[in-house]
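Name: DEAD/DEAH box helicase
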Amino acid sequence: MPEGEAGSGFQPLNLIRPLLDAVAFAGYVNPSPIQSALIPVAITGKDVIGQSQTGTGKTAAFLIPFMNSWRGNDPRFPQALVMTPTRELAVQVAGEATKLSPSRHFRTVCCYGGQKFGLQMDQLRKGITLLVGTPGRIFDHLSRGTISLDHVRYVVLDEADQMLDIGFRPQIERIMRKLPKKRQTLLLSATMPPPVMKLVQRYLVEPEHINITPETPTVDKITQKYFTVDEHNKFDLLLKVLDREKPRQCIIFVERKRSADRLYKDLQKHLPGVNVTHGDLEQKKRERIMADFRSAKITTLIATNVMSRGIDVKGISHIINYDLPQDLESYVHRIGRTGRMGRDGKAISFVTPEQGSMLTGIELMINRLIEEDHFEDFEAWTPRATTEAEAPKASKPVFGRSNKKYSNRL
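Structure predicted for DEAD/DEAH box helicase:
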């Protein structure tokens, strides 16, 4: 945390005193770039598109403007709505809202699938200012008539690109049509593909676009390396990497839920403090695992892409891509779980000999070469044998590059 009196850097933003006190109590000193850029614009009531990298403090950036204008409300109806793509992110946003709350009368309720309706109904009956949740569960409540959005005046679509990627467009569209036309809408998205732009054109009015994302993803604080490894050698390589690195906290990313469970079953025999999370686990169990990970009771967490976006755990020192992600952007989101808020971190990727082109695509996207790593006493992969007829082809530089280190990507 930067030096100085807590909250002092937020004073020029002209926040109300209770909110400024809450910011200081939360330990925030100076606003991050996205907070400095977005908060003054959103406070004016304008619709906003916000683009920034993960781990930059955007949650506080979109919560603070609404809290600054809140002066009490009828507790039966929410005044603000935040939609997120995952349960974990919804819980995290709700937790941040509770931490920054300017009054004990400001109530946040979090709704998501996997949690019993009865429990959510009990929370709703106690009063609500801010509703945070996933589009699927919010739409369920709307369909049942258990919530009303007639009084909502502030709406946030968080991680909009991911919400669309995982199929929430129909629910988002139906929810947005139920909202009052007179409202302020903020859309936060790491990328702005055409489907996200359609949402912008349909539901935002003359928005101001705030983009502090560099042309190439900034990963300068993260040391990145890769190992070439045959699929059947991955587990043995993982054990050697963990023994050498001794991570403070680590996420190991895999592509499939079944693979995550299998890896967890094998790894817990060799390492304490290991657990696994993915979308097939019961919600209570996922919440307990995340709480234990945040408190560092769990030091090594095996996860699918459910953990690749928006999850802010500051103690993560290492990311291991046990499986490379299928899309390039997920690589940046995954490794962004470390190196949070300017801290250093390390990302290690396992690349099979068939995935050389995927690795090159990642390097082109981040505009830097990823250094190869290896163990002198461990042969992680076996070079393919080439016939005499194939030898000239195999000797050419891979992917048109002359650097000899790329020859092992065949």
